[in-house]
Amino acid sequence: MTELWTLLKYLILGLIQGFTEPIPISSSGHLIIFRELFNIEIKGLSFEILVNFGSLIAVLLIYKNDIIRLIKNGLNFIFKKDEEGKGDFQFIVFLVIATIPTGILGLLFEDYIGEKLSGVAIVGYTLLITGVALWIIRNLRGRKGDGDLTVKDAIIVGLAQSVALIPGISRSGATIVAAMLLGMKQETALRFSFLLYIPVSLGITVLSITDIIGDPDFDTLMIPYLIAFIASIIASFYALKWFINIMAKGNLKYFSFYCFIVGILVILFL
Length: 270
Fold this sequence. Notes:
- Pfam families: BacA (PF02673).
- This protein has helices at residues 2-20, 27-38, 46-62, 64-80, 86-116, 120-136, 151-163, 171-181, 186-207, 209-213, 222-249, 253-269.
- The protein contains twelve helices and no strands.
């Protein structure tokens, strides 16, 4: 019975992380909340790395056509001097530029964030901040398309993603808020946000392979981890498709309401 409950808890955690990763309500914050509710102590980062990798797979599946186009046109511009691929090449460059702040700030402040800013109470307050940010952009409709982005845009969105290293600050929310405040169209903000997730998540996964291999709990929790990983892929895939539809309809205010409600409940009761 205990083993069944363990499997069920990790299944729920995988579904929670997977569902909340693409939508602007903070997956890291929700993992902290539900780990507190289920009284689960997870040592090390192996679990979070694996379920985030599951979300990465879902993003790759949904944006595979964009990724293939960007790579193909980018290479054509580099090696064949094909001017039609210039815009896609620049888009790739901007994604690289936007990744740099997260990498630098993550290395500098990872330990501090893990020790000082990962409490349940902190998550309650940061969810309120996420809710306010989403409320501010709820009615924005930008004009900048993929070909109108600048180095400044990339740096600002990259810095916004860095802020989301703090649990409770949504990564997708922070980058989309920044992108739309800079005047990007909704579809461009979405595309840039989730394509930006790819190098960051992939980099974290690659750099953490040794941590996963050396995790003392990995052998005993391999099956629960695997279940959570698969659940994360499935939940992220359908959550992202749903979120793309929500963005198209301009219903971001509902995520804002959700963050306000959960943030207040966490502050009051956890």
